[in-house]
Model the fold of this input.
Amino acid sequence: MDQTQPDGQLRRVDTALSRLESLVDERLRDEKERADELARRLVRLEEQYEELKRVSMDVEGRLERAMEYIRSLLAADQQ
Done:
């Protein structure tokens, strides 16, 4: 009977380790999915940032041209 008790304990330890390994694998899969989703979101945000930067530069250029046009109209009006 002494010999079966250690075997039973080893089986319980093996079973517990297998369950723990499964839990860790599941957690790693979940975290990888989360990391992949975050990476995709980061790419989208970076693309949106670049687009906003292009738009703001375009708006700034248009505003500068409009201000220059207004200045030329005011200068012509004063003459």
